[in-house]
Each structure stands twice: as C-alpha cells, then as structure tokens.
Amino acid sequence: MSCVTVEDVQKKLQLELCAGGTGLHRSIHRSDISRPGLEMAGYFNFYPADRIQLLGKTELSFFAMLEKEKRVIRMTKLCASTTPAVIVANGVDVPIELLEAAEKENIPVLKTDVPTTRFSGMLTNYLEGQLAPMTTMHGVLVDVYGVGVLITGKSGVGKSEIALELIKRGHRLVADDLVEIREVSKNVLIGTPPKLIEHMLEIRGVGIIDIMNLLGASAIRNNKRVLLNIDLEIWDPDKMYERLGLDEVKLKIMDSEITKLTIPVRPGRNLAVIIEVAAMDYRMKRLGVNAAKEFSDKLNSEINQSVNQLNGEENF
Q: How far apart are CA 53 and CA 79, in angstroms?
C-alpha cells in the first residue's frame, strides 16, 4: 500500500494552511472522506476519526448556531489524535474553536474555495490513486495511439531502443526500466515512472537521456492506463508463434489482467511498426472489429461450403 501525507494533499490540491502546520507530516491511510454532520450535532458514537474530515457550508452553518461551550466541545472531539487533517471547503471562514483545538493536537486545518461536493470528488480521486495497491515491473511503458503498452522482456533485448523509435514516431514515453503500477480498481491499472528516473531513457552505448529536454513535453506522459503487454523474446526457431491471433493470452498483475502478446525479436523486423499495429489492432478489437475472427469465420464457411458441394456430388 502506498503512503500519502497531508502535505502531499496540500500541495497537489493547492490548499491554504490555517493551523496545525507541525502536523503536515501525518500519514493518510484511507481514501474515504468523512462529512461530520452528525458529529456537529454531538453524535460521536461511530465517529470515523482516522479519515480526513471535510466541512462545508451546511456543517458550519449549523455549528455557528450552537452555544460557545458546545462549539468548543464539538471541535475538541473532532480533532482526535488519529485524525489526519480537517479541510474547510467552499471558502467558508474557519471557526476559531477549530483552529484552537487543531493547534493543541497538531492537526492540520486546510482551506479551499472549491465547492464542497466538487472538492470531495477531487480529493477522493487523488487519494484512491495514491493509496491503491502498487507493484513495480521491469519494462518500458509507452502511450501508443492512446493505448498504454507495457513492453517487457529480458535485459538487453532492446526495449528502450524500441521505445525511443516509438517516441521519434510521435508516441509518448511514460516510464523506462521500472514502471510503478497501481491497481485503482478491478482491471484498471495505472502506470507511472519512479520520481528518480522520470522522463529518462537509458540507451546502451549512449547512456541516460532526458526525453523531455531532448524532444519536448509532448514526448512524455506522467501516467497512463496499462492495457496491453508486448513481451519481447529472442526468436526461437523451434517455437511455434501465434499466426492468426485467435487465442488471447492474459498477463496477471496483482488482481487484474491485461492482454499479452509475445513478439519474437530477430534482425530485420521493424518492431516499432509491429507494436504500432498491435496497439491499433487492440483498439479495433475493443470496438468489436476482430480481423482474426472474421478471417477464421470466412475460412470455416469456405470449408463447409466445399464439404457440402463434395457431399452433393457423391450423392449424385
């Protein structure tokens, strides 16, 4: 499980810090958000203190109607020791009782002008992406015609060189050598580069090159959904490779699966073009156009027609 801090949220969503700055290092372990409406009314029996607390105009307008003593008690209970942060949305003024209670417990209080419902969606999407189960894979992730293609294979097979050729042909690099893959939901895998090697590509004999500085921002992407795996292997003359493409092989990553194609490598094969075609063919299959199946159906139809004609001639 990945980890995200309150400071990460503050920077990503551009939130104003109002109190509890010493607690910005607090870790957030859940993507769920709490809207403490019942808590403002005094009901803390099932208070989810380990979530980010989001206060909007509704909660704080009710809170303002309470007596001074009750307001202090409510905010003291709201700022539990396990609470990561409290965020006030919709540009509402932060109550002084909240600021005092938060400073006492070193709980960050953040503020945004974004409407509460919209901000809740933004925050949830960010946290789900950051806290999703993650694994790392050795390979290269490239955006080819809108399809996230994960190129894998043994070291030295030419993954980075093929990626460079694809980038030169107008496609976009996401990650080279090591790809961080997060499972946002079932069969939804998002690949990102490690921060240390972001935008970098290693070419044997040349060294490390910075793709963004070399070819511009249009040549890179910070993340991409992984949809297709191209596994490169040295050509084995004794191995039978797929000729029609009827059998769809899957690669399992965590609890999800993606389509896998094994492409043999040998001199004279233009692998960049092959990967481009594989990506386009993947898109067509998702649209319901399967050339291999259409060919197989036509072939079977021709065979059946020939057999029927032969049987008719024998009966005659």
A: 9
Q: Which of 117, 134, 141 shows the shortest CA–CA distance to 35? A: 117
Q: Indicate which residue of 111, 159, 171, 199 is catalytic.
A: 159
Q: Which of 239, 243, 247, 252 is catalytic?
A: 243
Domain boundaries, the chain: 4-131, 134-293
Q: What are phi and psi of 213, to 5 degrees?
A: -70, -30
Has 113 been annotated as catalytic?
A: no
Tell me the CA end-to-end span of the chain in Å, nearest whole number. Answer: 73
pTM exceeds 0.85, yes or no: no
177 is catalytic: yes
Residue tagged active-site, from 104, 138, 154, 186: 138
Rounded distance between C-alpha atoms, residue 128 and residue 104, angstroms:
30
Burial 269-281 (b: 16+ CB within 10 A, else e): eebbeebbebbeb
Q: Would you tell me which CATH number, out of the four given (3.40.720.10, 3.40.190.10, 3.90.180.10, 3.40.50.300), belongs to the domain 134-293?
A: 3.40.50.300
Which one of the listed residues 29, 57, 70, 177 is annotated catalytic? 177
CB atoms within 10 A of CB 165: 17
Phi–psi pair at 150, nearest 5 degrees:
-95, 110
Q: Residue 178 forms beta bridges with which residues?
A: 138
* 50 in catalytic set: no
With a CB cutoff of 8 Å and minimum separation 6, the contacts of 30 are: 50, 51, 127, 131
pLDDT tens for residues 34-93?
Answer: 999 999 999 999 999 999 999 999 999 999 999 999 999 999 999 999 999 999 999 999
pLDDT digits (tens, 9 = 90+) for 171-205: 999 999 999 999 988 889 999 999 999 999 988 88
Domain 4-131 in this protein, CATH class: alpha beta
**Catalytic annotation present for 138:** yes
- Residues across the chain: 316
Over the stretch 128-151, which tens digit does the pLDDT of each residue have? 888 888 899 999 999 999 999 999
